[in-house]
Amino acid sequence: MHIPTTLNYPDPAILIRSGKNKVLLASGYLYNRRHNARDQNWGWYCTRYHHGCKARIITDDAFFIIAYNGEHDHVAPVDVIAKGQ
């Protein structure tokens, strides 16, 4: 998986619980953690991946974003929830 590296991610990421699992919240989008992440870094994929969204994030072991491809093909779900849609 190739993800362009950047240090200018627009917003900080927050680790939150979703039932038994943890998800990453970044810029209003939710990401699931990849189970086969290597080394000290974690790969995250958009929760809408199975609906075609290819956005990805990589964090270090302290959950700082070290790389991302934030090209989503849908509206941020947190924005939809906040607006009651």
UniProtKB/TrEMBL annotation:
Which InterPro entries does the annotation name? Znf_FLYWCH
Q: Name one GO molecular function term.
A: zinc ion binding
Highest taxon in the source lineage: Eukaryota
Q: What is this protein called?
A: SFRICE_026459
One Pfam family assigned to this protein is: FLYWCH
**Residues annotated as domain FLYWCH-type:** 18-74
TM region(s), chain numbering: none
The alphabetized UniProt keywords are: Metal-binding, Zinc, Zinc-finger
